[in-house]
Specification:
heterodimer, A: mainly alpha, 63% helix, B: mainly alpha
């Protein structure tokens, strides 16, 4: 089986969107219109991170909203030592990890649908056997097994896999978000990948 | 680390599937509005002033009051306990040793109090002697609340009154 070139990860560049400093300044003074703009800037990425960690759309919706609310309430304590995006991410990730720890043995998947480009992704096409009667069935099963495998990881290990392998963050950015050193990020990533390889061995031949 | 990346190449390709998972169409259109609406609702509490200060300075009180919301039965139990304490306080009040004798206004009250005390003393002898509220074992001085832990030697609810009659 010829493996196609792996699809490039989304190019994660935490560069400052134009106008963000002004929006941030106004939001810190209580301007909800400005904060609304900030939410729109980051809502998709924050939601995606939380969803990938929880594998549950409803939980991700609630947690994402609560993360933005908490960030607004804590804006005055944001001292600018890191980028606003990193700071926001840290709030969202910590909130999600705390939520998952409380629901340790009560995880319930509520998976989003796959978009129409999925079937054309060369990475995934190579993984689905041509002999599968319905490719959609193969993709759905793959999606479920992948999410189930991710949920078997501990929250810190799941986080690094999601941030690095799914969302394309660098080790340095992950270290800032997780407030740990880069070596810890790398070791967690290595261990998590090993675990996932074991869980998904049947699909990685 | 390059070797490690190669080892996990198939896995990282599989993980690409996660990027294709998308929320329902139109999901993000109202997301920001919901967030700001919830912030505005939360603002009413933020600017409550007293509530916020209370939560910061006396979280134990907030937790205690929260019991009433969580379990309304606590309200009834707490109210009943307060009523009981009040009744006991009335029953155990200081009787008219401090009240000017001969006062026609107080004589009826004294008689009623004596009757109530007598009833209470009778009840006390039949209840547990270890009751912390009924320490007056000497019936001769049943009108004197002795060292009551609740009311002390002076009853805060009842104070002796004196009436200065002009010309006396």
């Amino acid at each position: 089986m010829i493996m196609a070139e792996p699809a490039a990860r989304p190019d994660f560049k935490p560069s400052l969107p134009p106008g963000e400093p002004d929006l941030l300044h106004r939001a810190r003074r209580g301007d909800l219109t400005a904060y609304d703009e900030l939410v729109r800037l980051y809502q998709e990425r924050i939601y995606a991170t939380i969803y990938h960690m929880t594998s549950n759309h409803e939980d991700a919706n609630d947690l994402a909203q609560e993360s933005f609310i908490k960030a607004f309430q804590a804006l005055k304590s944001f001292k600018g030592g890191s980028s606003f995006y990193t700071w926001l991410y840290r709030i969202a990730v910590n909130k999600t990890i705390n939520f998952l720890k409380q629901r340790k043995n009560r995880t319930h998947m509520s998976l989003n649908d796959l978009d129409f480009n999925t079937e054309h992704d060369p990475d995934l096409v190579a993984l689905i056997s041509d002999k599968t009667p319905r490719r959609e069935a193969g993709l759905a099963e793959l999606q479920e097994k992948l999410n189930a495998a991710l949920l078997k990881l501990s929250e810190p290990h799941r986080m690094v896999v999601v941030l690095h392998d799914v969302q394309g963050m660098s080790h340095e950015e992950i270290a800032k978000i997780a407030e740990c050193n880069i070596g810890t990020v790398r070791s967690r990533l290595f261990y998590a990948r090993q675990q996932l390889q074991g869980f998904l061995a049947d699909y990685l031949k | 680390m390059n070797q490690n990346e190669n080892d996990f190449e198939a896995l990282t390709r599989l993980l690409a599937l996660k990027r294709h998972e998308t929320p329902p169409p139109g999901y993000f259109e109202g997301f920001a509005d919901q967030v700001t609406a919830r912030i505005r609702t939360g603002d009413a509490v933020e600017h409550g002033g007293f509530a916020e200060r209370l939560a910061a300075e006396a979280p134990w009180l907030v937790n205690f009051l929260g019991l009433f919301q969580a379990k309304p039965a606590f309200v009834g139990a707490f109210a009943s306990a307060l009523c009981l304490l009040l009744l006991l306080g009335i029953v155990l009040t200081d009787r008219p040793d401090a009240v000017p004798t001969g006062s026609p206004l107080m004589s009826q009250v004294t008689a009623d109090a004596s009757q109530a005390e007598a009833t209470t003393t009778t009840a006390a002898t039949t209840t547990s002697p270890s009751s912390p509220l009924l320490l007056a074992e000497n019936t001769n001085s049943s009108l004197q609340p002795v060292g009551s832990p609740l009311f002390g030697s002076q009853n805060a609810f009842f104070q002796s009154a004196s009436y200065a009659v002009p010309g006396n």
